[in-house]
């Protein structure tokens, strides 16, 4: 589980639209990775819309932004089309990247325990080092907080 100051685990994942993304191939751009539980749910839709709305500002600061969940590329494509999202979504169907980043955790809801993605965001600097980590994210205002941290790099 990477923490601030640690190297970000490298990966290659397929994305919506049929391409793939390799984290180390994005250098020297800073990267924002936000992990979210499931496409087309209330909180995840709000988060994706927030990052999409601010994407031009992230790009103006030189950063790349990606959402990651265990949903399939086909599901991502539908989610992107339905909500006109501009943030690329990466598919981690086998959960290996979620495990590497420590976001696949035990969760509880309505008295039931299950495994799922803990909403988390990682800001990775131009050298591939984790600059900041947000765990157990609350969606409201989060994209703005990440943008502010990016600008402070």
Automatic annotation (TrEMBL):
Please give the Gene3D superfamilies that the UniProt record associates with this protein.
Glutaredoxin (3.40.30.10)
PROSITE patterns per the record? Answer: THIOREDOXIN_2
A Pfam family that this protein carries is AhpC-TSA
**Which superkingdom, per the lineage?**
Bacteria
**GO CC aspect terms:** cytoplasm
Report which reactions are catalysed by this protein: a hydroperoxide + [thioredoxin]-dithiol = an alcohol + [thioredoxin]-disulfide + H2O
Active-site residues annotated for this sequence = 44 (cysteine sulfenic acid (-soh) intermediate)
Annotated keywords: Antioxidant, Disulfide bond, Oxidoreductase, Peroxidase, Redox-active center
Task: Look up the EC number in the record and give it.
Answer: 1.11.1.24
For the protein in the UniProt heading, the enzyme class is oxidoreductase
Q: Which GO terms describe its biological process?
A: cell redox homeostasis; cellular response to oxidative stress
Thioredoxin domain location is 2-153
What CDD domains does the record point to? PRX_BCP
Q: Which GO terms describe its molecular function?
A: thioredoxin peroxidase activity
Oxidoreductase is among the record's keywords: yes
Q: Describe, as the record does, how this protein assembles with itself and its partners.
A: Monomer.
State the similarity comment: Belongs to the peroxiredoxin family. BCP/PrxQ subfamily.
Its annotated function is as follows: Thiol-specific peroxidase that catalyzes the reduction of hydrogen peroxide and organic hydroperoxides to water and alcohols, respectively. Plays a role in cell protection against oxidative stress by detoxifying peroxides and as sensor of hydrogen peroxide-mediated signaling events.
In Swiss-Prot or TrEMBL terms, this protein is called: thioredoxin-dependent peroxiredoxin
């Amino acid at each position: 589980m990477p923490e601030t100051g640690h190297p970000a685990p490298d990966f290659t994942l397929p994305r919506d639209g049929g391409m793939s993304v390799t984290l180390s191939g994005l250098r020297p751009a800073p990267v924002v990775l936000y992990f979210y539980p499931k496409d087309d749910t209330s909180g995840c839709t709000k988060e994706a819309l927030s990052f999409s709305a601010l994407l031009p500002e992230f790009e103006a600061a030189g950063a790349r932004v990606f959402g990651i969940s265990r949903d399939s590329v086909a599901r991502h494509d539908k989610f992107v089309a339905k909500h006109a999202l501009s943030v690329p979504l990466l598919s981690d169907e086998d959960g290996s990247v979620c495990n590497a980043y420590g976001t696949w955790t035990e969760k509880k809801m309505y008295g039931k325990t299950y495994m799922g993605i803990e909403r988390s965001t990682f800001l990775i600097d131009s050298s591939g080092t984790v600059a900041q980590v947000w765990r157990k994210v609350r969606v409201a205002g989060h994209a703005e907080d990440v943008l502010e941290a990016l600008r402070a790099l």
